[in-house]
Each structure stands twice: as C-alpha cells, then as structure tokens.
C-alpha cells in the first residue's frame, strides 16, 4: 500500500486512477452491461474468429477476456467475408433478463451493392456468458440492434437503425416489441427518432441504447455524417 501511494504521488495521479485504454488492441464498438456488481463488455470482431469477445471487470478499470460469443460454425458463418470493415459480425449489445444474458448483434458475410444485401440481426443467450446458444435471426432488417427489456411491463423491445423503405432509404431509429424465441415482431414496428440533422440519406442516427431509470425512459444514440 505504501509503495502504491508513493508511486501515485511521484506520478502525480491518484492511486485509483484508471489507465487508458482500459482494453488495449482491436476492440471496436464496445457495449457495456452491469449485472449486480459485475461489469461486462462485448466488442465487434468483424471477420476475425472466434467472434465477439466478452470481457469482465469488477471495477471498470481492470478487464479480463472471459469468452467469445461465437465459437461454432452454427453460430456465425464467415465464409466469403471480405477483409474490410463492415463485414463479418459487429455492433453487439448486451442485456440481462429472464435469468439469462442476451447478446444482440448483426452480421453479413458478403456485400452486394447491386442487390443491397442487408445485415441480419440476431440474438444469442447464455446462462453464464461462457456458453452461448445458436442465434435466433430477427425479422427486422437494419443495423446496431439493441434488446431492451422493460421491467415495468415485462415486454422486450428491439431498437435498431433502419431505413424507412428501400426506395429513398432515409435512415432512422425504429422499435418493435419482439419475441426473443422467434425473432419476430409481436408489436407494431414504429419510428422512434429521425435525428436532429437534415433528413437525407447521410443523416444517420445510429447505435440506439435504451434505459429505464427512476420513472423515465432514456434513449442514447450517436448521430453524424
């Protein structure tokens, strides 16, 4: 303890300071979850295998790799995936409900600008964040999926970024109540938010994360060109 205190004074930083990056290396699109007194982060893996690393921490500073969500070909196919960003598996999100951990993500193993092949949204679940189920493929198409379980109603919602249609393709954030067992919407598919920028094909609100706290629902997003 004395040595830690002395080193802290000499370096001019508090002994409890976090060192950045908290997780070094290639770990894009981090999604964090708190469950009881533990913290978990899932990151994108794109065309690399095994897919979707899962990290654990007790203090938000020291992180340990504990698993990968995709370790079997039945979970994620990367055959034919180009070696470039935006392919493979990316934009994961973590949730905990029904006594299970849930991971939502998206993947596509080829990109066809003519056919406009869409990313497919999927859900996987685990009792312990180490053994993961095969994916359930979701009905809606889009990117940056996030499962939100409303503890007030007991319903589960899928939030994602998607276009209004396949003609003018104006992007926005959409939501539907979803069945995690089938992947199908069981409620109305509605528009949540079209962003604050000029409504055109480049103004893209994305990465929706929904929370409930003290009587209010919060929607955290990113937006830009």
Automatic annotation (TrEMBL):
InterPro entries in the cross-refs: Glyco_hydro_43 (IPR006710), Glyco_hydro_beta-prop_sf (IPR023296), Glycosyl_Hydrlase_43 (IPR051795)
SUPFAM superfamilies (alphabetical): Arabinanase/levansucrase/invertase
| Endpoints of the signal sequence | 1-17
What keywords are annotated for this sequence in UniProt? Glycosidase, Hydrolase, Signal
Q: Give the superkingdom in one word.
A: Eukaryota
GO biological process: what's one of them? carbohydrate metabolic process
Q: Which residues, by range, are in coiled-coil regions?
A: none
GO terms (molecular function) for this protein are:
hydrolase activity, hydrolyzing O-glycosyl compounds
Family under the similarity heading:
Belongs to the glycosyl hydrolase 43 family.
According to UniProt, the name of this protein is Non-reducing end alpha-L-arabinofuranosidase BoGH43A
């Amino acid at each position: 303890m004395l040595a830690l205190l002395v080193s802290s004074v000499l370096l001019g930083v508090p002994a409890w300071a976090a060192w950045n990056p908290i997780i070094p290396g290639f770990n894009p699109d981090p999604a964090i979850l708190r469950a009881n007194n533990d913290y978990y982060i899932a990151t994108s893996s794109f065309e690399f295998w095994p897919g979707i690393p899962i990290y654990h921490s007790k203090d938000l500073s020291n992180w340990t790799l504990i698993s990968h969500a995709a370790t079997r070909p039945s979970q994620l196919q990367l055959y034919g995936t180009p070696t470039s960003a935006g392919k493979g598996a990316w934009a994961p999100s973590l949730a905990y409900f029904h006594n299970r951990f849930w991971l939502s993500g998206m993947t596509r193993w080829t990109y066809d600008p003519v056919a406009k092949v869409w990313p497919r949204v999927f859900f996987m679940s685990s009792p312990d964040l180490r053994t993961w189920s095969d994916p359930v493929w979701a009905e809606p198409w889009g990117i940056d999926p996030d499962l939100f379980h409303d503890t007030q109603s007991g319903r589960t919602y899928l939030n994602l970024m998607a276009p209004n249609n396949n003609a003018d393709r104006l992007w926005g954030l959409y939501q539907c109540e979803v069945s995690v067992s089938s992947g199908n919407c069981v409620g109305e598919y509605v528009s949540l938010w079209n962003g604050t920028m000029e409504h055109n094909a480049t103004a893209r609100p994305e990465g929706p994360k929904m929370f409930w706290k003290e009587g209010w629902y919060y929607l955290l997003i990113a937006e830009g060109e």
